[in-house]
Amino acid sequence: MPEFEPVTLRDPSSSMTATFVPDAGMIGTSLADGDAEFLGQRRGLDAYVTAGKTMGIPILYPWANRLSASDYESNGTVVTLVPGQGGVRADEHGLPIHGVLAAYSGWQVTAQSENTLTATVDFGATPELLATFPFPHVLTQHVALAGRRLTIETSVSPTAAASVPLCFGYHPYFTIPGVPRGDWELTTPAMRHLPVDGRGIPTGDHDDWAGGTQSLQSVTYDDGFNEVPEGAVFSLAGGDRRVDVVFETGYPAAQLFAPGTDSLIAIEPMAAPTDALRRGDYRSAMPGTPETLRFSITVT
């Protein structure tokens, strides 16, 4: 595996640090307070680069989670995805999963300071990306760490006459260091639950999710949601530590993933529900009108 140059941001007002690797898909690999790590490491960066096995904070772009088949239509354009080409990866059912930017090496750093980092991908200038998502645009990720809060802002700026579907998301894995999973509590907002089938694809049904606080002692999740309120807060707490994930703007959908085999939980901000790129239930960035989405993670 090639050597990657990590960028570590330092909070000017605390001992918090955040590390991102632009050459490996702008993935966030660490969010730490001294030696206390709050991101789930899973199989590590090597497995992410070689096999797309997610860890830390990866971006899922241009679609989050799975598509129900290997083709989609948008703006009159029909696209056929081929696993192994253009960054497309397939899950155990052969479904395209997590977009095409896993470990993508083409991010260009455009600005950097002690506690901020900005990088871009120009889809319009990259034929292999346009083959899977033929909507020219510049994707910009801006991250900042201050006041114990990591803010991740993502902008989609169309560069041609076509609008750009907004179906992406992030897959942050969180852990409470030094506290057993059975002592963690998860607090969620009221939203709408979207049941999935055995492939992880929404069935089309829905039910109300009242929200509130629940122990993770014997609970597992692999659940999708929409109608997530703007500014919604998801909190993971254990011992005297808490992680607050705020869906600040542009993320009306979410996924919770907490397997029983690992001490972590993924709280995933999503611009649209799973499989939205095939179903058409998404909004778009319009020519001349960039769209900016933002979420934040605060550790206390």
Describe this structure in words.
This protein has 300 residues and is mainly beta. The chain has helices at 44-51, 127-132, 276-279, and strands at residues 7-10, 16-21, 27-33, 36-37, 59-60, 71-74, 77-80, 108-112, 116-122, 137-146, 149-158, 164-166, 169-170, 173-174, 185-188, 191-194, 207-209, 212-215, 221-226, 232-238, 241-249, 253-258, 265-270, 283-285, 291-299. Strands 8-9-10-11-25-21-20-15-18 form a 9-stranded antiparallel β-sheet, with no helix packed on it. Strands 14-23-22-19-16-17 form a 6-stranded antiparallel β-sheet, with no helix packed on it. It has a single domain (7-299), classed as Beta-galactosidase, Chain A, domain 5, CATH 2.70.98.10. The chain contains 3 helices and 25 strands.
In whole angstroms, the N-to-C terminal distance is: 35 Å
CATH class: Mainly Beta
Instruction: List the domain count as a whole number.
Output: 1
Q: Which residue ranges are poorly predicted, with pLDDT under 50 across at least 5 consecutive positions?
A: none
Radius of gyration: 18 Å
Per CATH, the architecture is: Distorted Sandwich
Residue fraction in strands:
35-45%
> Which term fits the overall shape?
globular
The residue fraction in helices comes out at under 10%
How much is the average pLDDT?
A: 96
Quantity of strands, as a count: 25
Give the strand order, joined by hyphens, for the main sheet: 8-9-10-11-25-21-20-15-18
Order of helices and strands: EEEEHEEEEEHEEEEEEEEEEEEEEHEE
Class inferred from helices and paired strands: mainly beta
The description of the largest β-sheet is: 9 strands, antiparallel
The CATH topology, please?
Answer: Beta-galactosidase, Chain A, domain 5
Number of helices: 3
